[in-house]
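Schema walk-through. Below, the input block comes first and the output block second. Nothing else is stored per chain. Lengths vary across the set, and this one has 157 residues.
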Amino acid sequence: MRRYTIEINGQPHVIDVTELTADTFQVTVGGQQVQVRLADHDDLAGAVIAPHIEPPLAPGRAAPGLSPVTVPASPPPAPAAPRGAGPRMTAPMPGVILAVTTRVGADVKRGEELLVLEAMKMKNSLQAPRDGRVAEICVAEKQQVKYGDPLIRFEEG
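--- output ---
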């Protein structure tokens, strides 16, 4: 097990990470355990995946049951069109589409949330891999997707 201190919304959090297999880990944050699988960066097709947790409560308040929530995340700094960011966005993992947060014809910026995907009981914000215009949304809410399924097609150029 390895222990790390990470910062979420400006607040420090201690996480424990235990390697289960070469690409599967058990992560404990605030007493909540989740199992995560690493994906090769090229397999992500430029999508930014950001699992989210609720910020800690003020001292003296009772903590409700922990549950992951979707919170806007700042994308890491990078060029406007990162390597591998093509005209399509594909599913980085199997799961269920919980929300479509964009529309056909929308001009989107890199890092802007386009979809929410639930995988292994965690909500993942799938964000635009590059600046562009949405040409087609290939999925609907409550739809099951497999790894690599097309999610969104962007206009060329």
